[in-house]
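Sorry to interrupt, but I need a hand with the structure work. Could you write out one complete protein record for me, on any chain you like? Just paste the record in under my message, thanks.

. . .
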Amino acid sequence: MILRNIKARLYLLLPPLSGLLLATTFPPLDWNWSIWISFVPLLFFWSKNISLQQKLGGGFVTGLLYYSFVAQPFLGVANWAWADFGTIIADNRALILFWVWLCAGMGSAIGLGAVAYALHKLKNIPLLLLFPFTFVVSEWLRAAIFFHFTWGHIGYAVHDLARIRQLAGIIGVYGVSFFICTINVLVLLLIKHILLKKYYSAVVYTCVIALVYAGSWFYGVYRIQENSAPPMNAVILPNAAASAFSPLSFAQALDTALAGNPQLVILPENYFGVPYDLAAKTFVRQMFLLAPMAENAFSMLLNQSLRHPDVLFIMGLHTIENDQHFNSAVLLQDGALRDTYHKHFLFPLAEKIPGRAFLENFWTANAYRIAEGSGKQVVRNREHTIGVLMCSEAMFPQLAQNAKKQGSDFLVIIGNDAIAQNEIVRDELLAMA
């Protein structure tokens, strides 16, 4: 009797199984193949003759497990540029991150719970249409609520599938999510017809899945074309911890980068950790320990730029312009700063805090505020127009599209692993880029 009761309740494992399968599609596991079946256990659970409350609970469990795993690396965010470290907020940043992480997971859970509610109430609409549509709406709402931050959208799970991800060029990341949900529903229907021994219908669904996937794959083959010219060589210099930074280590890194005669050298975001005043052409002297080292290293970089006039240097730099602080990228050539780009979309809870005015009393006036850039998405010199994305901007495709519209020859993404103490953040960002 006990064994029979256990078997009867095994279906309760289906929602957590879906949550875990979804989590495996992102770093560190990166099992891209599992995205095509991740929703199938949850869809099986929803298709059972159970109450609405159980369906809501199943969606909630799947969403909470999935997004908790995906967003967990953010608990290691280390860069709080907007907060003075002598204040209540900075002192309790780990606790704040925990609650943000929990709320993000709950948001995804509520989203899938809402999908379950829609499926339960709108039974007359075919599952093949209803599930993909309602899930994509829930993803959009989650992003809108959490500062338009699209972290963890399932469309990013195809990042290693170069041909399939070409779909994003015509339908966007939400369209890719819709495509993934559609495949999951088709797999569910295939399995159901096999279990019912309706083999003819199963063959039909198999053919439909094969045709849909093959059509997307061949579209990707058509869209991917060889470049007419070889890509420019890029050398990415590793980030140096502030405690270990020195002009000597910087000189060695530059020598290593230039040894291969590259056309382009990229240095990480906010490499020196010291604000640079664009008008005064000097680093802020209040940071008396790091400023002299930054001055020496920057002079060294300009000298190397003079010696290598054909090399473009792009580096991340914290800049000050018109009394505003920016997270910027600067283009150096021929020993001079040629152009500057200011980051448009700031990283929530790292570079900005929503509702700052409400929280103004919780930190001192010593904490600067990073401003959002606007306008151009490129830096230019005489020969090239270079599109620039800073760190988390890689997840906003409209920025890359803006760079293309502004005539960019190629796109550079500048990041810095030091923003978080968990390397998975870097891996997930790379996947979304």
